[in-house]
Amino acid sequence: MVDLTEAQKDVLKADGHQLVVGGPGSGKTMVSILKAANISRETLRPGQRILFLSFARATVSRVFEAIDEEQSVTKEVKKRIEVDTYHSFFWRILKAHGYLVGFPRRMTILTPPNEAIALSAIRSGFKSNSKLSDDEKAQKAALEVAERMRLATEEGKVCFDLFAERVAILLHGSAKVRELISTMYPFIILDEFQDTSAEQWRAVEAIGKSSTLIALADPEQRIFDFIGADPKRLDHFKDAFKPSTHDLAGENHRSKGTDITHFGNDLLTGKFRQEPYQGIDYEGFASNPNQAFASLVAQVLKARKRLIESGHRDWSLAILVPTKRMTRLVSDNLCEPFGNVPPIAHTAAVDMEGPILAAEVIAFLLQKRDHDSCFDEFVDVLCSFFHGRGGAVPTKGDLTEAARFRAALAKWNDCVAKGKPAAANSVLQATFAVHQAVAAVKLSGDPNADWLAIRAVLEGGGCARLAEIAKEVRNVRLLERGTQLRQGLSQDWRNFGGYRNALGITRQAFVQEHFATAQKPESGVVVMNMHKAKGKQFDEVIIFEGWPKRVKGEIVGNPDRIVGGNYRDGAMTQARQNLRVSVTRAKVRTTIMSPKDDVCVLLIPEPD
Ligand SMILES: Nc1ncnc2c1ncn2[C@@H]1O[C@H](COP(=O)(O)OP(=O)(O)OP(=O)(O)O)[C@@H](O)[C@H]1O
Q: Binding positions for ATP (predicted)?
């Protein structure tokens, strides 16, 4: 059992609604688990549980890990602490009571890629976001909102964006449902409370009428203003519930013996001390892709060696980057480092819309082999990939590509109907050839082998788009032994001697994957964007940002920077907090890598 600080002990003693604030690694999560254990032993009635609500699955797995670390918490008590995401908790409420807010009784989730497909007709009617006037943006948003509601109420397809808003309406409107929830969960812990959106807050505000709320927050780790976090959120909670407030302040248990937290705090003001910060390294690199990635790989290899030599089995090294694009670039470079450096095994948290839709293309090819309209349907799935892979911000290029394929298919079918051969220069010729080659693949009934066989044909065929799909699908790791997708496909084959339901099984597997909470926390080398690192901890962290593009010595572009464009602009509060969150994820060491000739502005001391 660890020695709790006085402030942590106060958290355990107090009754009623609570607000626990404190800096990174100050022990908010940990004390909330001990608190939950106490409540579970002393207060809960049979059948009741404590709900720990978090934002993302990966954070949830960190909380599970923290619970497991707490040896003073018995197995029985652990079972009564239920850790869940807002998404998954809200979905459970909607499934049971959604009819109260106009939803049909039978509902399915419209996953982000399928939502993107459903909204692509609206989106393709507008120019790209940066070129829209405020009026046009509002018009586009209103059309999207209306379509989302139509899909939910008429077709029972509910997208994530609607969850919190509808649940808030439902809970404010129905004391009965609130009581049902509070009877089950009389205590609810709200993790990362500073980042709750207005809708999430409205929903938990309603539950707080009958359940006791314990909010954990660090106002200076608020990094989601762009999707609805609000600096006033803690005040909203205080005004509504008059909680007892506990400040764990600058205690740092995560990286004891280092100056990592100290450096993180200094980043907020830009005032740095002269003497080095223990546990913080800085590495400058040359501003060109080859040297930049070579420097990164060198740092990764050094860090990995240190961690392996530490003898700690589940070591973790996170490479945190500012943008999703950089996540991909770094991952590609670790797969094929320079010279004869062997690939560096890692996992990358890339956006899943593209990979999921690419998996649907493979599933389609497993399922639909050679019936009459098979090629038409195949082109349709391909177009869905282009409509959906950009998620909420599809590129014009992808939307145009889909339109081009559809137009080519119409011409193609016209020729077929007239008994003429399709035009030799049709964009579909290569697609057709690959489709035929896939239909000729003899399937074996081993889902893994069959999946790879189809992927290989797409990869090696003459159609550049299908080759791209094959590359995307490599990011899907659902076919590992024992996974739901693999088992589902095997069962399908056993039942029908073919993959009759491959598409449905694949879609379902991704929904399950989204809600699964038992995932292990990341270990080994992991790459993710900085926002995704929130609430996590790793042994070592490398923060790696992009570099400027220069023409004749002048900077002409500066994408992928921690501060957009890398120029000073006002207080830069969000950027400072974001970098602080990333820096303080490490237990032992954080290495910050920035281009030598255009160092990150947040690292340059502010004048007195
Ligand atoms: N009093 C304590 N003594 C020793 N170790 C502690 C103490 N409190 C917490 N810890 C450990 O310190 C680490 C960080 O704690 P925790 O994750 O609870 O911090 P946090 O405040 O939730 O951090 P963040 O806001 O950065 O996510 C954990 O490994 C936890 O087990």
A: 22-29
Ligand 1, residues at Cβ distance < 6 Å: 2-5, 8, 22, 24-30, 66, 69, 218, 221, 253-254, 535, 584
Tokens of 442: 């003899």
Mutate to test the pocket of ligand 1, among 12, 253, 536, 587 (most ligand atoms within 8 A of CB): 253
Which one of 516, 551, 585 terminates a domain?
516
CA distance 567 to 468: 35
Q: How far is the CA of 565 from the centre of ligand 1 (A)?
A: 34
Q: What angle do CA 225, 230, 232 make, to 5 degrees?
A: 155
Pairing relation of β-strands 554-557 and 549-551? antiparallel
Q: If you search the block for the tokens 């009958």, which residue do you land on?
A: 210
Q: Give phi and psi for 215, each to the nearest 5.
A: -100, 135
Quick one: which H or E segment has residue 396? helix 396-417
CA dist., res. 502 & res. 489, Å (int): 6
Handedness of CA 356, 360, 362, 363 (dihedral sign): positive
d(CA 347, CA 117): 27
Half-sphere exposure of 419 (CA within 13 A, CB side): 0
- The single-letter DSSP state of residue 305 is H
Task: Verify that 488 and 507 share a domain, yes or no.
Answer: yes
As a whole number of angstroms, the distance between CA 454 and CA 358 comes to 12
Helix axes 160-173, 112-123, angle to 10 degrees: 100
* Binding site, annotated residues for ATP: 22-29
Across 359-380, b (16+ Cβ under 10 Å) vs e yields bbbbbbbbbbeeeeeebeebbb
Residue from 30, 221, 588 whose mutation best tests the ligand 1 pocket (most atoms within 8 A of CB): 30
Residue 85 Cα to ligand 1 middle (Å)? 20
Are residues 181 and 307 both part of a single domain? Answer: no
Burial class (CB in 10 A: 0-12, 13-18, 19+), 16: exposed
Residues 336 and 357 in one domain: no
Do 356 and 113 form a contact (C-beta atoms < 8 A)? yes
Tell me: the pLDDT tens digits for 337-384?
988 899 999 988 877 788 888 999 999 999 987 777 889 889 988 998
pLDDT tens by residue, 195-237? 999 999 999 999 999 999 999 999 888 888 777 788 899 999 9
Number of the ligand 1 atom closest to the C-alpha atom of 5: 1
- Give the residue ranges of the annotated binding site: 22-29
Q: Are strands 538-544 and 524-529 parallel, antiparallel or unpaired?
A: unpaired
What ipTM describes this predicted complex? 0.96
Single residue among 226, 247, 268 that ends a domain in this structure: 247
Domain assignment of residue 559, given as a range? 259-350+521-603
Alpha helices, DSSP H, located in 57-159: 57-69, 75-79, 86-97, 112-123, 134-155
